[in-house]
Specification:
67% of the residues lie in helices and 0% in strands. It is mainly α and 39 residues long.
């Protein structure tokens, strides 16, 4: 489990960064082009 926990931490950080960027883009008024569909 220790070997699996490390990539999961990176994956969680990556997903958090991705969702935060999408959230900021939507707040910026670029919700006309939904970035969530590209994922």
């Amino acid at each position: 489990m220790r070997v699996i926990s490390y990539p999961n931490c990176q994956l969680t950080i990556g997903l958090t960064a991705s969702f935060s960027l999408i959230f900021l883009f939507e707040l910026g008024g670029e919700a006309n082009q939904p970035l969530s569909q590209e994922f």
